[in-house]
Amino acid sequence: HVQLVESGGGSVQAGGSLRLSCVASGDTISRYCMGWFRQIPDKEREGVAGIESDGSTIYADSVKGRFTISQDNAKSTLYLQMHSLKTEDTAVYYCATSPLGWGGTWRYFAHWGQGTQVTVS
Furthest-apart CA pair in the chain: how many Å? Predict the structure, then answer.
């Protein structure tokens, strides 16, 4: 099955930018809907952005216009470019794959990375 490894998290001041990467192995990511989620303690995992197998993209309202999801199939890598970061963007960010499409819920997603911490102060 597919394995996912995120990187690119870190600490940044409000208004700054970060780019997260998620490298996949074991399968072809173009087959799946790929998504970015985030979670803070005691809160349910929240969908941030997704990219369907047909290339269409989905964004949470809270990140529209600030975040951009993309993928490089040749590199088996998913990206999340984040601009104009806010303190409320602080969370652990996860990438994940779904054979069922976005679905609007993390429950559609079968494989997960270990997460990368983003802290905005």
Answer: 37
Computed over every residue of the chain, the mean pLDDT equals 95
Asked if 9 and 29 touch (Cβ cutoff 8 Å), the reply is no
| 117 and 12 Cβ atoms separated by less than 8 Å | no
d(CA 121, CA 99): 36
Percent of the chain past pLDDT 90, that is, above it, reads 88
* Angle 92-111-116 from CA coordinates, rounded to 5°: 20
A 10 A CB-CB count for 22 gives: 26
> What are the strands, taking DSSP E only, across 8-109?
10-12, 18-25, 33-39, 46-51, 57-59, 67-72, 77-82, 91-98
Burial class of 34 by CB neighbour count within 10 A (0 to 12, 13 to 18, 19+): buried
- The conformation of residue 86, written as its DSSP 8-state character, comes to -
